[in-house]
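ok, trying the design again with the full structure, not the truncated one.
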């Protein structure tokens, strides 16, 4: 029977024995597969490994026989091309593992307008719950004059899309995918305090999870309005808010939730922050509230950022120089009033304080309800120095008045002395010659009277000499002893100096105590260190 069957096969194959090999190979493979199926688990990969190891050992043996062969060479393992029936291994060559197949399954390319136009809910009365988280990455600028707060923030939004869901096991374990933002619906969340449109590039992709949860991350440079309270500048503490809400959706359509509490969001911001400008970040609080704009309620999340100014630079560049100018004004009391140097010095110092006030005017906003303490500090010092300048002018006026009185008295004495000297200079012989010219007949009578008056003239000459000696003595005493107005000016100057020092001390103590109270309230605060 066997030879007969063999001949029959030869006739069927045309007498070519090589055609029998595929049939024999198939029979052997079927037997092998049949034997594998009978094994527990039916895993054929366990039989492929010994064959690979045998081939590798043969190859290594051949490498050892070669001159200079490197025994460390190994054959690469079979990875992506290897097929397996193990449940932990995915069919990587399957078409279900590609993103194209996944997008076709979701119909995102064809129905992108349907996915992006309306809220992704099964029923229009279902509220879309929007989860929000914000982290401050940097404080870029705080402009007191414009009352603007410029932070760089990270925003995380997530919501549920009822129209997108899939089983990850049907797509090789694919649990999430990144799709362009224009393909999906996005909430119209806006920052209420924003005054300028963000110039950064928006996020081009969003993440879609298998359970329908959509995640959107974005970075923003926000130029927002913030009311600055600069009463205690430069030891002030500012609180700026960023309020997130929908533009058109009411609270029945979108409801906002804050993902984390205030302490956690403060900790995350401290860890992420890279720069704080001239400020020290204290904390950030998050609250949720409902507002009523245009006669319908809207859900809102409000983040309040609290920070304190770094005051060291303002102390060195502004407060101390003004205090030094005040010290120079106090030192000017040691300058003499005789010349004009004291007056010109005080005017120069007063102009320097005026320049500092102009610089301060460029920093502080004009819309502040209360006058800042630093403005009171500058105005108070300016007023004290102005009063000191007026006192100097008054004292110099009194001293000048005393000098004018002494000058008038000296002039009167000189006039009397000149008259007496002129009368004493006329001798009897000169009077006699004059009398002879007018009337020679009355010579005897005139000479009699002249002899009588000559004794009086001699007495007047003695009186003049006495007056001259008394005047010289009086002038010496006056040079040694100041006048009445000069003595009064010196007394006024001493009293004013004591009053001036007292008022300056009380004023500075009051201003610095108010600044110290503010500083003390901030000492127990914890700041973010960079």
């Amino acid at each position: 029977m066997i030879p007969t069957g063999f001949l029959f096969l030869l006739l069927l194959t045309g007498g070519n024995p090589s055609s029998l090999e595929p049939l024999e190979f198939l029979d052997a493979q079927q037997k092998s597969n049949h034997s594998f199926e009978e094994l527990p688990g039916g895993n054929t990969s366990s039989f492929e490994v010994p064959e690979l190891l045998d081939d590798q050992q043969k190859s290594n043996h051949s490498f050892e026989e070669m001159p200079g062969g490197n025994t460390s060479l190994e054959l690469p393992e079979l990875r992506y091309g290897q097929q397996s029936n193990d449940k932990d291994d995915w069919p990587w060559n399957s078409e279900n593992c590609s993103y194209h197949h996944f997008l076709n399954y979701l119909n995102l390319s064809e129905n992108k307008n349907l996915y992006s136009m309306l809220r992704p809910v099964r029923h229009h009365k279902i509220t879309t719950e929007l989860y929000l988280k914000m982290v401050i990455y940097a404080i870029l600028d705080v402009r007191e004059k414009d009352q603007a707060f410029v932070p760089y923030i990270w925003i995380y939004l997530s919501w549920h899309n009822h129209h997108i869901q899939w089983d990850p096991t049907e797509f090789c374990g694919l649990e999430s995918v990144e799709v362009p933002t224009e393909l999906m619906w996005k909430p119209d969340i806006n920052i209420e305090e924003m005054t300028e449109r963000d110039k950064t590039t928006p996020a081009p992709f969003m993440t879609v999870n298998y359970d329908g949860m959509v995640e959107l991350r974005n970075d923003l440079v926000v130029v927002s309005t913030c009311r600055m309270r600069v009463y205690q500048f430069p030891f002030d503490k500012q609180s700026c808010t960023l309020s997130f809400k929908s533009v058109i959706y009411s609270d029945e359509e979108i409801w906002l939730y804050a993902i984390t509490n205030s302490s956690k969001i403060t900790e995350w911001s401290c860890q992420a922050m890279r720069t704080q400008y001239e400020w020290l970040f204290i904390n950030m609080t998050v609250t949720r509230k409902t507002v009523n704009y245009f006669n319908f309620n809207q859900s809102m999340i409000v983040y309040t950022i609290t920070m304190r100014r770094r005051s060291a630079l303002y102390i060195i560049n502004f407060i101390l120089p003004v205090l030094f100018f005040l010290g120079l004004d106090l030192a000017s009391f040691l300058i003499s009033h005789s010349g004009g140097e004291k007056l010109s010095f005080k005017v120069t110092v007063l102009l320097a304080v005026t320049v500092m006030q102009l610089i301060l005017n460029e920093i502080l906003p004009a819309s502040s309800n209360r006058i800042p303490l630093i403005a009171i500090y500058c105005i108070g010092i300016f007023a004290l120095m102005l009063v000191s300048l007026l006192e100097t002018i008054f004292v110099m006026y009194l001293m000048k008045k005393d000098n004018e009185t002494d000058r008038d008295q000296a002039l009167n004495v000189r006039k009397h002395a000149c008259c007496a000297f002129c009368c004493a200079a006329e001798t009897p012989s000169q009077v006699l010659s004059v009398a002879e010219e007018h009337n020679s007949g009355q010579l005897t009578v005139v000479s009699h009277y002249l002899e009588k008056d000559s004794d009086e003239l001699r007495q007047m000459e003695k009186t003049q000499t006495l007056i001259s000696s008394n005047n010289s003595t009086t002038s010496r005493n006056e040079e040694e002893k100041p006048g009445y107005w000069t003595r009064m000016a010196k007394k006024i100057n001493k009293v004013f100096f004591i009053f001036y020092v007292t008022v300056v001390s009380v004023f500075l103590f009051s201003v610095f105590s108010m600044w110290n109270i503010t500083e003390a309230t901030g000492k127990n605060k914890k700041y973010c260190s960079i």
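Keeping the full-length input from now on. The first strand starts at residue 128 and ends at 143.
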